[in-house]
């Protein structure tokens, strides 16, 4: 009797084991394709897996369980995944990878059959996110969106390029930031830490270690100005500011080490500025930034696109800058500026200025830009108010005249297309600027209050500090908030 009960127990344990194993299914493989070459196929590791095998063919369906062009057994996991890698294969957008995988789990074999992956985009990899690391030897930057597998759904072809890699489909979200964390996502954003110099000589330090000037909470990135003296203390006045190796400017310049000289003082305020430089850049796309603008006079929000690599020159905006939304606030009135910068001395040459009754400082609005190979258009809440086209060589930016003068870097611009300098990849930039030499003209007729400084005057920062350093009402009105940033392929 005792032996019969023991036999029943053994049978029960065996049955439970069989049922548990039979419930197992081979994990769906993650396929990642890299630009300009290479791909990998992987599954997550879990206890019980002792082997992973990949079999596949490119643009040719598998005949049952044939070995295929690629046939590889992977005997051990690496960094939590069982991974097959081919670093040399060149897969193009629209190519189809047919495959099957085999997993040995607790001694039994399981297959994922009839796998189909259509290359919709490239996973680019100088930075990585989502816990998936780049493949050794690849140089293009981070993933631009989630992988798309399955059948080849129809899509409109795209002219967008992200981090050097073409995007296959238009109307595809290639960048999104909703500020849902407690700080900026370091995989997406680079926070500046420097003392601004030419071309604008802003009256604000951009520092990355002052929590009060940049907060991320409740789905919003909030920037505001703070007095430099209150940050460093009154005893610091007149001292040399040295940012050291953490400086993000030119290490051998006053961007990183500045000694005040009589009235040429340190910028009297601290603010923040961050960008996707080195992490995300693109050419052509539909950009939307939802934001609420600052109400204070003499400050300006920075919703800009800046060149990822300044092919046409490093200074004076010679490689271009695109401004999605910049406001000048004067109490109840705001002027909205957007457009293209080609040179600091031609600062307003291609900027559109529009007085608006919209409550830009009280409500969130969508600041948008549509950038294609045929046009650059600026909009607010889908209402167009600034538009550029370059239909022929005569209208190319390199052939613009300011009086009788061409742009100073015209010879270099001639090496690009007629859209140069706006024919390269640009990065996103968000920040809060104060004063400076270029964004507030010396024209008393423009302002409801007397402007407290003169552009290019050595006393400019000194005069501005004396006017506003202790003005708590003004400081409270410098708040600038961004809800989200999105880029969609075109």
TrEMBL record:
| Principal cellular location given in the protein's record | secreted
Q: State the InterPro entries in the record.
A: Beta-glucanase-like, BGBP_N, BGBP_N_sf, ConA-like_dom_sf, Glycosyl_Hydrlase_16
Q: Name one Pfam family in it.
A: Glyco_hydro_16
| Similarity comment | Belongs to the insect beta-1,3-glucan binding protein family.
Localization, per the record, is: Secreted
Q: Name one GO biological process term.
A: carbohydrate metabolic process
> At the top level of its lineage, which domain of life is listed?
Eukaryota
Which keywords does the record carry?
Answer: Glycoprotein, Immunity, Innate immunity, Secreted, Signal
* CC per GO annotation: extracellular region
> The organism's lineage?
Eukaryota, Metazoa, Ecdysozoa, Arthropoda, Hexapoda
Per the UniProt entry, what species is this protein from, by scientific name?
Stomoxys calcitrans (Stable fly)
* Protein name per UniProt: Uncharacterized protein
Provide a Gene Ontology MF annotation, just one: carbohydrate binding
Question: PROSITE patterns given for it?
Answer: CBM39, GH16_2
According to the UniProt entry, where is the signal peptide? 1-23
Q: Which residues form the CBM39 domain?
A: 24-124
Q: Which residues form the GH16 domain?
A: 133-490
């Amino acid at each position: 009797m005792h032996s019969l009960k023991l036999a029943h127990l053994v049978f029960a344990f065996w049955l439970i084991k069989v049922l548990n194993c039979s419930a197992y299914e081979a994990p769906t493989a993650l396929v990642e394709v890299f630009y300009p070459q290479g791909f990998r196929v992987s599954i997550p590791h879990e206890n019980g897996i002792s082997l992973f095998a990949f079999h596949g063919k490119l643009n040719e369906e598998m005949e049952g369980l044939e070995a295929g062009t690629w046939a590889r057994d992977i005997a051990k996991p690496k960094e939590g995944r069982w991974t097959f890698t081919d670093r040399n294969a060149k897969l193009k957008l629209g190519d189809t990878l047919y495959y099957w995988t085999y997993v040995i789990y607790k001694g039994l074999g399981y297959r994922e059959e009839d796998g189909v992956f259509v290359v919709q985009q490239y996973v680019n990899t100088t930075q990585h996110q989502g816990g998936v690391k780049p493949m050794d030897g690849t140089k293009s930057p981070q993933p631009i969106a989630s992988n798309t597998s399955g059948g080849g759904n129809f899509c409109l072809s795209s002219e967008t390029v992200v981090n050097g890699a073409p995007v296959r489909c238009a109307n595809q979200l290639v960048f999104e930031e909703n500020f849902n964390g407690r700080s900026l996502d370091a995989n997406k954003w680079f926070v500046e830490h420097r003392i601004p110099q030419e071309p604008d000589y802003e009256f604000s330090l951009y520092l990355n270690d002052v929590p009060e000037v940049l907060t991320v909470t409740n789905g919003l990135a909030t920037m505001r100005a703070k007095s430099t003296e209150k940050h460093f203390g009154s005893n610091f006045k007149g001292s040399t500011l040295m940012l050291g190796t953490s400086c993000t400017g030119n290490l051998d310049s006053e961007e990183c080490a500045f000694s005040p000289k009589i009235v040429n003082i340190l910028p009297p305020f601290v603010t923040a500025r961050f960008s996707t430089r080195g992490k995300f850049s693109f050419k052509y796309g539909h950009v939307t930034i939802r934001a609420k603008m600052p109400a204070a006079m003499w400050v300006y929000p920075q919703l800009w696109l800046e060149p990822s690599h300044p092919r046409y020159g490093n200074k004076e905006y010679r490689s271009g800058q695109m401004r999605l939304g910049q406001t000048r606030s004067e109490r109840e009135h705001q002027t909205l500026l957007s457009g293209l910068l080609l040179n600091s001395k031609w600062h307003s040459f291609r900027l559109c200025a529009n007085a608006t009754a919209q409550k830009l400082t009280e409500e969130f609005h969508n600041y948008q830009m549509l950038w294609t190979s045929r046009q650059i258009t600026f909009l607010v809440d889908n209402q167009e108010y600034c538009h550029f086209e370059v239909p022929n060589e005569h209208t190319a930016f390199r052939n613009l005249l300011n009086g009788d003068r061409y742009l100073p870097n015209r010879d270099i611009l001639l090496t690009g297309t007629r859209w140069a300098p706006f024919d390269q990849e640009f990065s996103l930039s968000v920040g809060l600027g104060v004063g400076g030499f270029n964004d507030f003209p010396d024209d008393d007729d423009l302002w409801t209050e007397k402007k407290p400084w003169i552009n290019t005057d050595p006393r400019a920062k000194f005069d501005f500090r004396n006017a506003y350093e202790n003005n708590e009402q003004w400081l409270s009105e410098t708040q600038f908030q961004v809800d989200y940033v999105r880029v969609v392929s075109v």
